[in-house]
Each structure stands twice: as structure tokens, then as C-alpha cells.
Amino acid sequence: MQTSLEDKYAHQIIPFAWPKGYSSDGVHAGLREDRNDMGWIFSEVPAQAAGTYTTNQFQAAPTKLTKNTINQDHKLQAVIMNSANANSCTGKQGDEDALTSQKLVADKLNIDANLVGVASTGIIGEMLPMDIIKKGISELKLTDNKEVTTAILTTDKHAKTISVQLDIDGTPVTISGFCKGSGMIHPKMATMLGFVVTDAKVQDGLLQEMLSKEVDTTFNQITVDGDTSTNDMVVTMANGLANNAEITKSSSDYSNFVEAFHAVLAELAKDIASDGEGATKLVEVNVKNAANHDDAQKVSKAIVGSNLVKSAIFGEDPNWGRIVAAIGQTDAKVDIDHTSIWLNKLPLVENSHGAGFDEAEMKNALSSNKITILVDLNSGSSEGQAWGCDLTYNYVRINASYSS
Asked: Which structural domain range is residue 352 located in?
């Protein structure tokens, strides 16, 4: 199966830090009562840029604007972000407000507006209080602090960050990422914002291909509650200031860079899943011996997305029938007589029958704050992976009063 970040040999985790040429800030502008609610990140030079975006039909104004901006020439130099207000379902005025935010940042930084991305998250359907947005932009500075990572949080319990470093042809390169996401998580994409920046020099056009592929096996393989939002995006920037030999598909270090890039996205995705609203357990599902990669991916995500499976894990109930039912609801090829399942390495199902496990031992395994389910479909040789969390009473409490 895919390995964890710590198992990767080509790169190492370092304390969270911006790569060369990046700065940021976060401030309390007044969108929230008592915490940071606006921030930005800036590159000294225009950077190669790529993005992936929500597939929700009600795509928010800032999401549409950033997508259109990146699609022009695949470059960004700054991204302005706010929490508390999604600027979604706000009509023409919402579009104008996103454009105003973009221009205000461009004017302050003395750069072209087409180099500024805009990201918002929060309540849907309320107009942006532009007086507060203007105030926040005026207060932002170019610093090396990490306050932008807290400025985008909504119901998240903590900031989600990761940095790794690797050598490209003998030159140290850093990849750093941060994100937010806790509820409305069922990406292709969901209420999550993700930003990954690097000082690596990457061939024109390659970054988008890389991001799209790696998002499919990371952020698009997490689910908290099955709901997709209107604002979600993952944006990545590569400014080239590490001065490494340009990364191309034929580079000797290409696979190492992709591996490190994937690891950053995977760790952020898992952090979102484990921080799901009200969650007490991270759930990882690994599928092996599937007929093809798509089958492996859909089965793994069906299991982490099943409310019955999620509820059973919260209740620490080894009801394996719920896992089997989730598998069977997909159209994946399954050997229905020879499917096996393990939970935290303990046999749960063997050849589609209960494994006769020790109840006390299984109950103890289910008390862990990370539950790993391994499924053998016995139908091929492909693998897949997905992450989610348990479904708790607290999830209902949080979402019953979200807008109040």
C-alpha cells in the first residue's frame, strides 16, 4: 500500500517554513469576533500556478475568479484569503466584490491584478462586508509569520501545515502546504482550501498536470460528511527561486519531486479527515487486489463515506456487515465469496465470512484514535486508499447551529 510520509526516503519533514521568496500575514479584520479572519501569501516573483476547484454547480465568486485568473497564463504572485464569509450565491455583486479584493491587493503590492488569486470560506449567501475586507487588506504586511494558516479556519480545531525538503540535482528545495477543512468534506472538491507553495523550478505546464493527478489520490479521497461545498480549491505555486535544475518529466529527480509533492497533499488530506467536525477517530481504508485503480479508489471511499460504518466506528462496534454492505453498493468488481477484511491488522472477515475474532481484542482495537481497515477484493492487483472519520453526536450539534 501507499506509505506514510515518514517512510519516504527522498525527502524529510522539516518544521513548517516558507520556501525561498514567500512571505505572508494574517490579521483579525473583524469578520469574526476574536480571531484571525484575513490573510495572504506573496511570492517575490510571479510563480508558476495551478489549481483544482469544487465541482459544485454553485461555484462561489472567488473560486470562479481564481480559476479564470490561473487559466489565463498559469501564473500567480499572491493569494488573498478570508474566513467567516464564503461570498457564494451572492450574484453580480459578489463577483464585483471578489474583483475589488483582487484589485486592492494588486494595488497594494504593485503587481498586476491577473497575478492575484482570491479565496473565501464561511457562510454561504451573505454579502461580503467590503468595509471590513478593505480594512483587512490595508493591515496586511509582508512577514515570515504563519498567521495566514489560522486566518482561513472555520470549525477547524487547529491549523493544518506541513513542510518537506529534498534535493533536486544537489540543490535543496522546499515544499510547504497548509489547508483548512472540517465539515462539508467530500471532495471533488469540498469546504476546504488548500495551498501548496514551493521554491522549485518546474517546467511550464507540468504543475497543473501534477496537481490534478495528485489531488485525485489525496484530497479527492477524503470524506467527512458526503457534502461538497461551493468554495473549495487547491492552489499551488512554484516560484523557481531555489535555482534548481528545471524539473521536467525526463529529469532524474522528477519522481522524487512528485513523491514529495504527493506526500504533502496526503498529509494535509489526512489532517482534514482527522479534524472532521466532532470527530474522535481518523479512519484509513486501504484496498488491495482490486480489478483496477478506479475500483480500489471507489471502494475505499465508499467505506469511509458510509454513515453506518462511521457510526459503528464511533460506537466501537465491530459490525463488519456494514463494511461489506458499503463495498457491495459500488459497481466495483468483487469476488463475493473470497473478500477479506482486517481492522487494525486483526482479521475481521475471511473469505466473506466472519473471522471469528475475539470480541475483547477487537473492542480494544476500535478504541484507538486511528482505525485502519484493509480490504482484499481478490479481483486483481490494484490498490487504493481513502481517509475519513467517525460520525459523532458532536457533528450534529456543530451543524445544527452553524449559522447562529
From this structure: 282-400
* In a shared domain, residues 300 and 387: yes
Q: What is the pLDDT of residue 323?
A: 94
* CA 398/CA 135 separation, integer angstroms: 30
Q: How many other C-beta atoms lie within 10 A of the C-beta of residue 151?
A: 28
291 and 255 housed in the same domain? no
Give the position of cell 451572492: 90
Among candidate residues 241, 243, 193, 178, the one with its CA nearest the CA of residue 24: 178
180 marked as part of a ligand binding site: yes
Which of the residue ranges 81-95, 147-161, 218-232, 377-391 would you say has the lowest mean pLDDT?
218-232
Same domain, 205 and 126: yes
The yes-or-no verdict on residue 152 having pLDDT over 60 is yes
Mean pLDDT for all residues in the chain: 89
Cis preceding linkage at 127, omega within 30: no
191 noted as active-site residue: yes
- Residue 142: what pLDDT? 97
Same domain, 71 and 125: yes
- Answer yes or no: is 191 a known binding residue: yes
Percent of the chain with pLDDT over 90: 69
66, 150, 174, 191: which one is catalytic? 191
Q: Do 234 and 158 have their domain in common? A: yes
